[in-house]
């Protein structure tokens, strides 16, 4: 269907619905979740940064390299790193994208390194990760640019920010910093012998963009659509929020322009070959031309011979219905962060015992299409004061992690901020970190086999059983893979006086508990189960009867992961 600015948006949506009415095969089974040669079970992603992340003694890439052995031992198989490109300012996180082709190699914006380090440090860190069985995902910021080098004058039309399809006046000439000529030709780079044009010679002008939010001539802020005979208006293939959500921030890239397409397609293959990256995390896809993004993924797969290329997209919405059309049109080549599930966790932490845990997965990608879901609890955008402040409270964070890590569906992603100390007002808590590490260990050791959901009758205590699995066919002496029983609660827990001396995870005298009869199967008849997480509580014990049923407990407002006594490591791992 040829689409131009004269075709009404509703016809575009109707054509897309009629064309992509079927869902493609799910994405995760066809994607690489671990480096080749691994058995593929219980792969685990980690987001290795927070918004304000810095290290006091070394670059971030060097910090990542030093942590690689620890991450590998924990069971991390994928790491999502922050955008590696040069930002508009020295300490920019990279989402303020200035030059995608500068990975910390050229003197631009008063620096050679990015906030995160130099290109050399990045390449070395990724190589170390691969050597330890960890794939690295490159954060691709393809929607916009910031930090242009010189002003331009051009025609633009101010539009209603709440409905970008409505013009607020006629086109007029404005002045804005639009051109990106890049500074690699500067005197400093000439002295250093550095030449960015070896990678890309494209010089960006206003012809390569669709919109912006600032008229420097009149000092007026607003949403402007660039207007000329060469411009086609907003892309039709973006989210329909605000009438048309092509414009998000900065200077919005026009992915229909042939020069733009060529430059970005070449960058996609180049950045993976250059860094050793294994896949992409795509930023802000609801604002991007989805036809281009699909072409980008197919191009990289074809040019690199990577039919198993892993890609995960950020479509930030709590409404599953808005994500469903994107699942259909991306042909099973993209997974999606499960933002609806994150908001369920957030809402559960706010509501406390008033939240019905039987509805915890409702409206999530995990429930609807588990093999398209990348599940997470929090990320760099959710702490207080951030753009999407929706942090999961400490009263429910470990319960949420127990779900994504042990449930057995989707690809879970743990957050650096929940494991490592970080700046205020971000989210580190030492007790939470210890609990998350314990749950990661439980995933590696015990979260195998078919899952049985149970306890649907109780609004404040739900759970599931993992049955365990036989040893791999080519296991060469590997033992069978154990299962577990997982219970989570959001019931009100009574305050325990400090003098009582209760420790986190241990059975405190007088502690209120749920006691639930659960079937672990006849194969486990007579077995003894011990509490493994959130911290080791081996004094808590359940004996399973001859029919495979046991009375398992969970403290009010807490969680328990129960495992067979015989499956416990000889030396229980430290939390």
- The span between the termini is 57 Å
What's the CATH H-level homologous superfamily of the domain at 451-567?
Golgi alpha-mannosidase II
What is the count of β-strands?
25
Averaged pLDDT, please?
90
Q: Which structural class do you get from the secondary structure elements?
A: alpha/beta
Return Rg in Å.
26 Å
Strand content: 15-25%
CATH architecture of the domain at 451-567: Sandwich
The CATH topology of the domain at 451-567: Immunoglobulin-like
- Model regions low in confidence, pLDDT < 50 over at least 5 residues: 497-507
> What can be said about the biggest beta sheet?
8 strands, parallel, barrel
Using the coordinates above, name the CATH class of the domain at 451-567: Mainly Beta
| Largest beta sheet: strand ordering | 1-2-5-13-14-15-16-17
Helix content: 10-25%
Gross geometry: globular
Q: What is the number of helices?
A: 11
Short description:
The protein has 575 residues and is of the alpha/beta class.
Overview of this protein structure:
It is a single chain. This protein has eleven helices and 25 strands. Helix 2 (60-74) links the parallel strand 1 (45-47) and strand 2. Among the domains are: 150-253, Beta Barrel (Elongation Factor Tu (Ef-tu), domain 3), CATH 2.40.30.140; 451-567, Golgi alpha-mannosidase II (Immunoglobulin-like), CATH 2.60.40. The protein is globular and about 80 Å long. Mean pLDDT is 90; it is low at 497-507. Helix 2 runs parallel beside helix 3, helix 5 (258-275) packs across helix 6 (290-304) and helix 10 (397-406) packs parallel to helix 11 (430-446). 23% of the residues lie in helices and 22% in strands. The strands form five sheets. Strands 1-2-5-13-14-15-16-17 form an eight-stranded parallel β-barrel, surrounded by four helices. By secondary structure, it is α/β, with parallel strands linked by helices.
